[in-house]
Amino acid sequence: MNAPEDRSGNVLRNAPEYVAGHGLLTGRSAVITAAAGAGIGGATARRFLEEGARVLIGDAHARRLKESEEALAAEFGADRVASLPCDVTDEEQVGAFFALAERLHGRLDLVVNNAGLGGTANLVDMTDDQWSRVLDVTLNGTFRCTRTAMRSMKASGAGGVIVNNASVIGWRAQTGQAHYAAAKAGVMALTRCAALEAAEFGVRINAVAPSLAMHPHLVKVTSEELLAELTAREAFGRYAEPWEVANVIVFLASGYSSYMTGETVSVSSQHA
């Protein structure tokens, strides 16, 4: 995989090298939400496959999801990749998504709750609909999927791992982001509380908190000025590649983090 470049095609300072798989998830079954396209969910699906897992990917965008499934299946084998459209705001779709994972793989080992929705609006101008939509996808969607996964893992008695996607904005303030920050802070709190309950039946629940992971959708919805400002805050002077966040998710899903639960791991130098 090529080193990351800026918009002018220049290789970024401190550009990382892609890390090869080491079989850390061999034989494990995984479900990943919001996994269509080139963002963190798609990168996580690829990294899980490279580490030996079988994956079921979901997304609210059916066409992009099917394209992602076909691309991954062509590279890793159709027997290791499946997909089902899943809108995490719809309890029925969430149930069908996890039920398919159980039918395909026998049980559920790993869950990555990646679905989230952003937006920019100052609080004095924010509508109830803007607030509710972001909270329903980002926080309530994570709740629905975490609850369903916990029920499945508890019933199987085989343990499991859940990794939620939070954000550094759950710790720090940013204008125009009250709804998203509240949702991501909620994901962190949900992770801590759910982890205590899930420990009883051998399930670990942690979260990652990225700051700026670049992907095509972010470029489309974010101004050059804001991207430059956010990048300048980073210790390495560059944004993260989605697969760099996925690497931390692999760690949390693997046996290397066997004594970690209820934690939120910052994939950034920004903690506040």
Give the key terms.
single chain, 272 residues, alpha/beta, seven-stranded parallel β-sheet, 8 helices
Order of helices and strands: EHEHEHEHEHEHHHE
- Main sheet, how many strands, which sense, barrel? 7 strands, parallel
Mean pLDDT score, rounded? 91
Would you report the number of β strands? Answer: 7
Cα radius of gyration in angstroms:
18 Å
Structural topology:
Layout: E1 29-32, H1 40-50, E2 54-59, H2 62-76, E3 81-85, H3 91-105, E4 110-113, H4 128-156, E5 160-165, H5 178-198, E6 203-210, H6 216-221, H7 224-232, H8 242-253, E7 264-267
Parallel strand pairs: 1-2, 1-4, 2-3, 4-5, 5-6, 6-7
Helix pairs in contact: 1-8, 3-4, 4-5
What's a quick, concise take on this entry?
The protein is α/β, with parallel strands linked by helices and 272 residues long.
Question: Can you characterise this structure?
Answer:
There is one protein chain. By secondary structure, the protein is of the alpha/beta class. The chain has helices at 40-50, 62-76, 91-105, 128-156, 178-198, 216-221, 224-232, 242-253, and strands spanning 29-32, 54-59, 81-85, 110-113, 160-165, 203-210, 264-267.
